[in-house]
UniProtKB/TrEMBL annotation, chain A:
Organism: Aromatoleum anaerobium
Annotated protein name in UniProt: Molybdopterin-dependent oxidoreductase
Annotated Gene3D superfamilies: Aldehyde oxidase/xanthine dehydrogenase, a/b hammerhead, Aldehyde oxidase/xanthine dehydrogenase, molybdopterin binding domain
Top-rank lineage group of the source organism: Bacteria
Residue ranges annotated for the Aldehyde oxidase/xanthine dehydrogenase a/b hammerhead domain, each copy included: 30-135
Automatic annotation (TrEMBL), chain B:
Pfam family, one: Fer2
PROSITE patterns: 2FE2S_FER_1 (PS00197), 2FE2S_FER_2 (PS51085)
Protein keywords: 2Fe-2S, Iron, Iron-sulfur, Metal-binding, Oxidoreductase
Residue ranges occupied by any 2Fe-2S ferredoxin-type domain in the UniProt entry: 5-81
InterPro entries, per the entry: 2Fe-2S-bd (IPR002888), 2Fe-2S-bd_dom_sf (IPR036884), 2Fe-2S_ferredoxin-like_sf (IPR036010), 2Fe-2S_ferredoxin-type (IPR001041), 2Fe2S_fd_BS (IPR006058), Beta-grasp_dom_sf (IPR012675), Diverse_Oxidoreductases (IPR051452)
Claim: Iron is one of the keywords in the record: yes
Stated name of the protein: 2Fe-2S iron-sulfur cluster binding domain-containing protein
Domain of life: Bacteria
């Protein structure tokens, strides 16, 4: 800082709402960022996993002798070699290495650590496994039929028969007498009465397909034990602190002996929220080899053995009165859990919020049954069930509006939530820009006029029809109290040159949290963004945080960072006031100086003040800590409660061109209006929304993981179609700034929001263009062509009211 | 175990001699033998563009190229683009326009974009979109990448 500047008055300025470049972007654009795939530790071995070649089978024998004899092979492990394995996952229902039964093609049977990947792969080919096939369940509806084969009959636990159990060990997973993995039941209001009051009722079944994250960086981990038995992991987990505890349980270790370092990550989107078998297996290998072991997936393996979005079969009944008032919603969903339970099974937490609270609805009755099948298992994925719920709800909103001959926008506005409302589920909407989202997106896209015109032109000559569709969403925007704490810790220190080190529990997964957190700190301390160094990737250094999920980082970690910065500011101003003989309330921080708050006149350069403090008789440093816990509550047993400190809203209008000759749907424009509380980094938030829109476009139109009798048919980018650059729609994004009272500088979370409405709005747009409603995703040319020519089968859910609750 | 071969090529302006397995890809050679990790593995099948490099001035998927076929060629990777002022402007444009999120696709995108600008200095948005069609990005939705390339394109004139 130049002292000559002292003579100038320093104008007030803000970083909030500006276009701030991502701090890590220059390194990434230069190819210098070292991702986990790029890391090489001295003495490192390479690991590979042998997966099942059968969809459902008993393992008769495993012979690893030839693999063990291969030169360059250090360790070969099967379940028999790890008798202390613990069941892992959300329901603790599977062992990392399967010894007795395989339940899906991704199942891990053996693992090898060798001098090179090539040797490890060659060793896998030498392992002989004998199977005895068992009947396959690939349709979730079959899983519930009486007499259906069971997927998890045996316990993973302690009856002495199971070789992975020590004698007298407690039963960790008791086995299942049926194929039901999880059930959720929620209700509010008087359903019978609400139904009786309805003038119109619709009942339809919707089918939501498999898609997967397709992070450009494939999954990977490096594990290493030191001489004292402490475990160091390089991992791309999104929840390092929770996982530290979980790994400790799986490994029978003291959690304090586990350290997780998170190298930069090649995409997350929810995929790194659970612990997967490969991670535990890699640690087993490292323990056995006493060398660092690195395991990185191939792209094919990434498709086969990483989680999917939850596929759902969903029957929705909705009703309304002639005047446009919603009366009730009744929902039954069947979740295809896959062979094991990960976070996908718990998506009803989010889905029921949308059904109960996106619009005001006097009665809501919601039931989910998640069943085991022999399919790939579903995990958490950006939007977490909300894409599926919104797809159903927003189509019914259009259908109800049409039935009572009301404009679809008017119908939505009539039922939309307002600030101050407390929903049947107990969610309290403190800031709520929903109606403004609706009107903004509708106006900017000229929705109402186009919607009317398109209907008129449906019968025009030519194969290409234009359509416009609208859909909205509600999502948690201030964290989600799912764990005992939803908080985040911050440690902040200033050095002798007034540079800040911000040590935060919150991980950067590409979403730009480092930059936003730096901005919030600089706003308090009056420093340029370049003055901040963020440390956020090492559990041995950073304070606790619950992890990156539920669009919570900006809100929770942001408030935590602000808390620490405010404490630092108070300390600095008190010191300056004392030294310069004035009242600290008359001082402020701006442009790297302590200034007079009223005039902006510089009092002392901040760096100089820092040095004076440090090198004085009573030497002192400015270091502060803060832990932020949001004022949300846990849901009760009936899933009621104000689970988030704030809620985010959005409306998206999608325009399409449908070629009725080919079934090709072109998404031409997306107009979005997002209630984000307040824009912090305009560049970052635009990028997050654009990326989310295109991810939603893929979900709606192109992406489809084809799982056929338990076999994934298209584990590659040739046959699994991600949206490419020429296909993206024109995007018009508006921000509604509802200035949330609890949010950092008024902001709310936005990470998941932009993907949520696209498929629902696209469905409504296709209907607007063609008069044909399609109840199943994705809208591939084949599917659309069939639907337009009356050849599509309407999805059916027989489980309606059949499930035992 | 496998057959080895000695090859020589120019890498980012520097002459190199290495010994590689005959079955090795250029991508693996760059990452594992030479130790330049800016070039990424995204699919290994020519479908994602994360491994894009320039070979004799043409952009190639290094995962589809045998290392032995690099013999006698001139290779430029993301690390080598540092020496090219035009590419500097491009990289800055990526940063400035917010075209980088997780960054995993970014090196391949930048190399592809550099080639695009070299061959189509006046490219418009549509040409740019087609030019990066073979490069997948899961984070950004491509818009800011196209904006960045477009700005470098006009700015470079
Ligand atoms: S890694 Fe070469 S194109 Fe994907
Ligand atoms: S920035 Fe993440 S894949 Fe492109």
């Amino acid at each position: 800082m130049n002292v000559a500047e002292k003579t100038h008055f320093i104008e007030a300025d803000t970083l909030i709402g500006k276009r701030i470049q991502k701090k890590d972007a220059p390194e990434k654009a230069a190819g210098k960022t070292r991702y986990i795939q790029d890391m090489v530790l001295p003495g490192q071995l390479h690991a590979k996993i042998l997966r099942s070649s059968r969809v459902h089978a008993r393992i008769v024998s495993i012979d690893t002798s030839a693999a063990k004899a291969l030169p360059g092979v250090h360790v070969v492990l099967t379940a028999a070699d790890v008798p202390d394995q613990q069941p892992i996952g959300v329901a603790r229902d599977h062992l990392p290495l399967k010894g007795e039964r395989v339940r899906s093609l991704r199942d891990e049977i053996a693992a090898v650590a060798a001098d090179s990947e090539e040797i490890a792969e060659a060793a896998l080919k030498l392992i002989r496994v004998e199977y005895e096939d068992l009947p396959i369940i690939s349709d979730p509806q079959d899983a519930l039929k009486p007499g259906a084969p069971l997927i998890h009959p045996e316990p993973h636990g302690a009856d002495g028969k199971h070789l992975h159990l020590k004698p007298n060990a407690p039963i960790a997973f008791a086995g299942k007498p049926d194929n039901i993995a999880m059930q959720f039941d929620y209700t509010h209001g008087d359903l019978a009465q609400a139904e009786a009051e309805s003038d119109v009722v619709f009942e339809d079944t919707f089918k939501l397909h498999y898609v997967t994250h397709c992070c450009m960086g494939v999954s990977g981990i490096i594990a290493e034990f030191d001489a004292s038995g402490n475990l160091l992991m390089y991992s791309n987990t999104q929840v390092p602190f929770l996982h530290k505890r979980e790994f400790a349980e799986y490994l029978h270790m003291d959690p304090s002996r586990i350290r997780i370092i998170q190298p930069p990550i090649g995409g997350g989107f929810g995929s790194k929220l659970d612990i997967y078998p490969f991670e535990v297996i890699c640690i087993f290998l490292a323990r056995a080899a006493q060398r660092p072991v690195k395991m990185v997936f191939s792209r094919e393996e990434e498709f086969l053995a990483s989680p999917t979005r939850q596929p759902v079969l969903l029957t929705l009944r909705s009703g309304c009165k002639k005047d446009g008032t919603l009366t009730f919603r009744q929902v039954h969903t069947l979740h295809d859990n896959g062979a094991y339970t990960s976070w996908g099974a718990t998506t009803p937490f989010v889905m029921m919020q949308t059904f109960s609270s996106l619009y005001r609805v006097p009665a809501c009755d919601y039931h989910t049954t998640a069943v085991y099948t022999n399919n790939p298992y579903a995990g958490s994925f950006r939007g977490y069930g909300n894409l599926q719920a919104t797809f159903a709800i927003e189509q019914h909103m259009d259908m109800l509006a049409e039935a009572i001959q009301m404009d679809p926008l008017e119908f939505r506005l009539k039922n939309a939530q307002d600030a101050g409302e407390v929903t049947g589920q107990g969610m309290k909407f403190k800031s709520c820009g929903f109606k403004e989202c609706l009107t903004t997106a509708a106006e900017r896209s000229d929705y109402q006029a186009k919607h009317r015109d398109n209907i008129v032109h449906r019968g025009d000559a030519g194969p290409v029809k234009r359509g416009i569709g609208i859909a909205s969403m509600l999502h948690v925007g201030g964290g989600a109290k799912i764990y005992p704490s939803d908080g985040c810790g911050t440690i902040l220190k200033l050095d002798d040159f007034a540079n800040v080190t911000l040590i935060t529990g919150a991980s950067e997964i590409g979403q730009g949290s480092e930059t936003v957190l730096s901005q919030l700190v600089c706003e308090e301390l009056g420093l340029p963004i370049s003055a901040v160094t963020v440390v956020n990737n090492d559990t041995a250094i950073t304070p606790w945080d619950v992890g990156v999920h539920a669009s919570r980082t900006t809100f929770i970690a942001g408030n935590s960072a602000i808390g620490a910065a405010k404490k630092a500011k108070a300390k600095i101003l008190a010191a300056a006031a004392k030294k310069h003989g004035c009242d600290e309330t008359a001082l402020d921080l701006r442009g790297g100086f302590v200034i007079k708050a009223d005039t902006g006149e510089p009092v002392v350069e901040l760096a100089r003040l820092m040095r004076n403090l440090h090198f004085s008789d009573k030497a002192e440093l400015v270091m502060t800590t803060f832990y932020y816990e949001p004022p949300s509550v846990h849901q009760d047993k009936g899933f009621k409660g104000d689970v988030s400190a704030a809620y985010a809203w959005a409306t998206q209008v999608v325009e399409v061109e449908v070629d009725t000759d080919t079934g090709i749907v072109k998404m031409t424009k997306v107009t979005g209006a997002h209630d984000v509380g307040r824009v912090l980094n305009r560049l970052g938030i635009e990028g997050q929304i654009e990326g989310g829109v295109v991810m939603g476009q893929g979900y709606a139109l192109t992406e489809n993981l084809i799982v056929d009798n338990g076999v994934t048919r298209n584990p590659n980018f040739r046959d699994y179609k991600l949206v490419t650059a020429p296909e993206i729609p024109e995007m018009d994004i508006s921000f509604i700034e509802s200035m949330d009272g609890e949010g950092p500088q008024g902001a709310k979370g936005v990470g998941e929001a932009p993907s949520i409405c696209i498929a629902a709005a696209a469905a409504n747009a296709i209907y607007n263009a063609t008069g044909v409603r399609i109840f199943a995703l994705p809208f591939t040319p084949e599917a659309v062509y069939r639907a337009l020519h009356g050849k599509a089968e309407k999805p059916q859910l027989q489980a309606w009211k059949v499930t035992t609750t | 175990m496998s057959l080895k071969h000695d090859i020589g090529f120019t890498l980012n302006g520097v002459k190199k001699r290495v010994t590689v397995d005959v079955g090795m890809t250029a991508l693996d050679m760059l990452r594992d033998v030479v130790g330049l990790t800016g070039t990424k593995y995204g699919c290994g099948e020519g479908e994602c563009g994360a491994c894009t490099i320039q070979v004799d001035g043409l952009s190639m998927n290094s995962c589809l190229m045998f290392a032995v076929d690099c013999d006698g060629r001139d290779l430029v990777t993301i690390e080598g683009l540092a020496a090219d002022p035009r590419a500097d402007a491009l990289r800055e444009a990526f940063v400035e326009h917010g075209a980088v999120q997780c960054g995993f696709c970014t090196p391949g995108m930048v190399v592809q974009a550099a080639h695009l600008l070299a061959t189509h200095p006046d490219a418009d948005a549509e040409t740019i979109k087609r030019g990066i069609e073979g490069n997948l990005c899961r984070c950004t939705g491509y818009k800011k990448i196209v904006d960045a390339i477009e700005s470098a394109c006009c700015g470079g004139k």
